[in-house]
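Internal ticket #5521
Category: modeling
Description: The requester needs a full-assembly model to guide mutagenesis choices. All entity lines are attached below as received. Residue total reported by intake: 774.
Assigned to: D.W.
Attached entities:
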Amino acid sequence: MDVDKEKLDEIILKYQRSKAHLLAIFQDVQKEYRYLPKEAVKHICLRLGIAQVDGFEVATFYKSLSLKPRGKHSIHVCLGTACHLKGGADVLLSFIRELNVKTGETTADGSFTLESVNCLGACALAPLVRVDDRDFGKTKAAHIRGILSGFTEQHER
Amino acid sequence: MNLSLEKLEKITAAFSAKEQAYEKIMRVCCGTGCITSGANKVFESLSEAVGHNGLSTRILVKKTGCHGLCERGPIVMLGADEVLYQSVGKRDLAGDVELLIKTVTEKRVADKLLFRSAAKKEKYVSPLDIPFYKGQKRIVLARNGFIDPEEIDDYIAHGGYRAPFQALQMDAEEIIDWVTKAGLRGRGGGGFSTGKKWRSARAAQGSPKYVLANGDEGDPGAFMDRSLMEGNPHVILEGMIMGGYATGSNQGYIYVRDEYPLAVFRLSKAIEQARGYGILGRNVFGSGFDFDVEIYRGGGAFVCGESTALMASIEGMSGEPRDKYVHTVEKGLWEKPTNLNNVETWANVPYIINNGWEWYTSTGTKQSPGTKIFSLVGKVNNTGLIEVPMGITLREIIFELGGGIRGKREFKAVQTGGPSGGCIPAQHLDMPVDFDSLTSIGSMMGSGGMIVMDERDCMVDIARYFLKFLTEESCGRCVPCREGTRRMYEIVDRICKGEGKIEDLMHLEELGEALRWGSICGLGQSAPNPVLSTIRYFSDEYKTHIIEGRCPAGVCKELTTFTIMEEKCTGCMRCLTECPMGAIEGARKEPHRIDDLRCITCGICYDVCPFDAIKIG
């Protein structure tokens, strides 16, 4: 895919071309594209003067980075200990059924990416689901359609 | 601009005068938990209603950090500690806001929103009477629910930034001496003496030196650091300034989990405001000492909470730990002397400097002075964040503060220390909570997650859960951890599926030993704890899985079936409506039936049945 190199350079400059900020640069680029395009990684490595193998090592090590395109909205089902005890896995299962994707995959229409996460730190409200930057506490399978429709309607509007 | 003590007092006086002009202050908890329950909307509607009713000179509506009682959010506190209102706007936002307004205009208590105990018998007005708060000793969290975390003047008005001002006039050695005598130990879980660490960092050769705050709180079930960073970011900066001065460092970094965007936002704001006041940057408080702090965001890797992995991550590399025969205080970040403390540890330091080390040691036990913040979650009635003196018993925490086990169930175990800790059974409930006693019973303090489990939680499944977590989070660098956690997971998974053999238990213990001795970092070395502690205390449960092919708690899906006992079923249709799979059939007032083919054994029917008519088989 084509990446906007000027935009990338802007982000790199924001971090003073510092190698130490590689992760932060990647995160900012991911915010821009909703994922981290391979072309972007290559360009950033070139600009920072690091080997591509090191750039891709970082890009694949951290779970928050994704080299695969992601959906418009990302769903994170929390599987921390408290959520696990209170049925987080069953909530995840219900999302899998409802969206017809596996964990880590994006729906065919590109609207949702489903992921699990090992604790979001709102354990008192387990089981927790985060869609984009909104958290939903004490989720039950019965809530899932309502949660999803709130987001599909939003971008149709 | 450089702040002098005089100016701090001036800011305090101006801010307090502004607040005192109001008849009533309403503090809306805007921690993550309450925001999830709708606190932002409560704040907006309440502010709007105040303006609308022409009360803006009488009532101040304020956003604060976490009050701790997340379960009952959104929480609104009135006055200093006069009234606590719970679940505000949960069902009827407009109505609840009106009730709150009336508490001022008509001077009456909004009865409907008062805290009630789980049994709904008692009702409380002041938070100080609620057992959840009564048993606490809030030192580090004291200002958490009071101040607006995005307003530095508020923090200063509540006594903030006096400690570094005083510390910068002390001798660096003296500060370290105080911290050592206070007996402060690493709150991240290790429990190493903070004073000793600072002393080594000070003595270490090399320049520049760094101080780091570990806010990569990855333990599932723990959110103490999050609430601190979100609710009172300044207290962490205060600690770091003093740590920097004491160890001879001019640069601090805070490493925050990627999953905590609000913490990053509020910390950034705090740093900006502190710089504006000359509390950070060149010539801190006009003392000639330079110190600045920068934030690094993590990337969703649990292992980065380990000190050397965290440093590798800040350097822009993948977060893999390294051997520690060279200590990080000598060669840490960029091979320079580095002092790393957990954010809660940093947050303790200002209180030691403000009140003296003798005062600090008056709380807690001899070996573990001070308090500890825990996140009390799982199957207790009052879940949330608590700060308690060290040495308090598990029983007090769970049954008094936590209000006991939810519903009619029995306590089974409490898990502390996250994936490095273990499950503690009922027989150890009277164990005092401190660093050394928890380790002695096969668990550990950890960063402070406390997950309570009841008879419906399967201990083998918990062991499998943590192993799964660890296989995903092991960085893969050393073989014992990478392969060991995986093999252990396979064995426990087999047991959960009813394919276990009795010699598996021996193999798990053997493998556990290998991991403990052979892994490079703490993640691998402590990885066997969840398995070994459950085998130690709940071996019967393992044996029931292996020999009888049964999961007594009804959790392990392959070993569990749910059936409805006809003689007990009244046909109330409760389970039928709640079943997510539509697997239950039956007419009203007639016994229901579960269709095994459609049942996913989630157990919701068992949990909701009012007549105990569902049997786990």
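Resolution: model delivered.
Comment from assignee: Chain B has a mean pLDDT of 93.
Ticket closed.
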